[in-house]
Design a protein that fits this description.
By secondary structure, this protein is α/β, with parallel strands linked by helices. The chain contains six helices and 19 strands. The strands form six sheets. A six-stranded antiparallel sheet has the order 12-13-14-19-16-17. Strands 1-4-7-8-9 form a five-stranded parallel sheet. The N and C termini lie far apart (71 Å).
Length: 371
């Protein structure tokens, strides 16, 4: 405890709305009425959440006593919207994350004089895999689920009067294996694509007035290379050499390509293409060079999708998502009109401008009329 003040961020109990905390033989929320295995369950979601908020308040008091430079991270919910029992794994979520967050805000105000006396940051674990029914399992990045979870969490925060509070992803990732059956779920290439698409979309939402995620933490840095001891979320294989997996190289590329860039927004292509692809435009404030991150959405059928990008230079370079330490560069000359025509598949590509600046005649306003 003597070094506690060196820890800047304090996370209060991971995934407290999960079913694990109702197991009377291990750890769970206990009431005062004796039961067959000791104390009975604290049976209502609000009762369970009240004990959790009390822990947050105690942590906040401790942080204040140390000088109040520490930040208390509350919530840490298992999912945002899903709850119930998975018929395949038997895994139970006792309270939906959105309901847990509502109770947290309300209890902090009613019992402890305000949210500021309990926590400084809200966090969620918006995992997309392991749906309630196997046919709903989403093993790839799903833009719809991403936006639903993010919008739901932000809506709860706005309704509570705390829209400006930071929202973090405390855990995110996709498993390579089912922890119970050891069946294969994804591979490292799919994990690479999922990682890139989630991080790029999270960064893109920073420019959205609805709000985004302020920080994303990946679940595991390392994991063993077989299904007997892990679900395989890691970026590095847990060996003496810590062998980088493909998602490690993808994470490095996302960081190097987008670090320091300003998000201009999502590029809308018009029509059905906006449902089948994602294109985000970033810009280097120092030289105004553009970088586009583009991909075709998974689960959208076979084949590629043709798109056009509003280039500002005569030559663009496309760098496919890295699966190793090797780059996948391709020179992409633009048309005389200033547009780049290319095709997208499910492997994201980073397109950046090089060469001399183009004058874009299609963007020059030659007249306007007020009616």
């Amino acid at each position: 405890m003597s070094r506690l003040h060196y820890v800047k961020y304090w996370v209060i109990w991971g995934e407290p709305n999960g079913g694990n905390f109702r197991d009377p033989d291990t750890h769970h929320y206990k009431g005062r009425t004796p039961g067959p295995k000791g104390d009975s369950f604290v049976d209502t979601p609000r009762e369970r959440c009240s004990l959790y908020v009390k822990m947050c308040n105690i942590a906040k008091q401790t942080a204040v006593a140390l000088g109040d430079s520490q930040k208390i991270i509350g919530g840490y919910t298992w999912r945002v919207q899903r709850w119930g029992t998975d018929p395949t794994t038997g895994e139970t979520t006792t309270t939906a994350g959105k309901s847990w967050l509502r109770h947290m805000f309300d209890l902090a105000e009613r019992r402890y004089g305000g949210v500021e006396n309990c926590f400084d940051i809200i966090s969620v674990d918006p995992y997309m895999h392991e749906a309630i029914s196997p046919e709903q399992d989403t093993l790839w990045f799903d833009e719809g689920k991403f936006e639903d979870d993010l919008d739901t969490a932000r809506a709860v925060m706005r309704a509570a009067g705390h829209s400006d509070m930071p929202l973090w992803v405390n855990e995110m990732g996709w498993p390579r294996w089912d922890v119970n059956t050891h069946r294969s779920l994804t591979d490292t290439l799919m994990q690479s694509r999922n990682l890139c698409q989630f991080l790029a979309s999270a960064q893109a939402r920073q420019a959205d007035p609805r709000g985004g995620y302020d920080r994303v933490n990946w679940f595991e840095l390392t994991s063993p290379g077989d299904s007997t001891a892990t679900e395989g979320f890691g970026l590095l294989e847990k060996t003496t050499s810590l062998r980088p997996l493909s998602q490690w190289w993808s994470a490095k590329q996302v960081n190097s390509s987008l670090r320091g860039k300003r998000l201009n927004g999502r590029v809308m292509l018009g029509g059905a293409k906006d449902d089948s692809v994602r294109v985000y435009e970033f810009e280097n404030p120092a030289d105004s060079q553009k970088t586009w991150v583009c991909w075709k959405n998974a689960g959208g059928g076979e084949g590629s999708v043709s798109i056009s990008l509003p280039a500002t230079t005569d030559t663009l370079t496309g760098d496919g998502l890295h699966y190793s330490d090797q780059q996948n560069l391709a020179v992409m000359p633009t048309q005389a009109s200033g547009w780049l025509s290319t095709t997208l598949d499910e492997r994201p590509v980073f397109v950046s401008g090089e060469g001399f600046k183009l004058k874009r005649p299609d963007l020059v306003v030659d007249s306007f009329r007020i009616t």
